[in-house]
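Subject: sequence -> C-alpha cells, single chain

Hey, anyone have a minute? Need the predicted structure for the following. Not urgent.
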Amino acid sequence: MSTLLEIKAAIEKLSPRDYAELMAMLHAPVDDDWDRQIKADATAGRLDHLVEESRADIAAGRCRPLEELLSEDGNEAAR
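Reply:
Had a minute. Here:
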C-alpha cells in the first residue's frame, strides 16, 4: 500500500474532532500565505478600487445590514 493510500485510510478513521484539528493544521500555511498576499495587495493599493466601490454602494443605499439579511432567511442567530 502506498503512503498516500495509508494516509487517506487513516484520515477516514479520525474522529470529527481529530479531523477538524488536522484540517486546521493543514490549512494554516495556506491561510498565512493568503494573509500575506492580501496585506501586500492592500499596502500596494491594489484593493483601493474595492474600497471605493463599497463606499459608493453604501452611499447609494445599495447595502443592507448583515443582521437584516440573515433574519430574512430565518437564521435565529441573527435575532
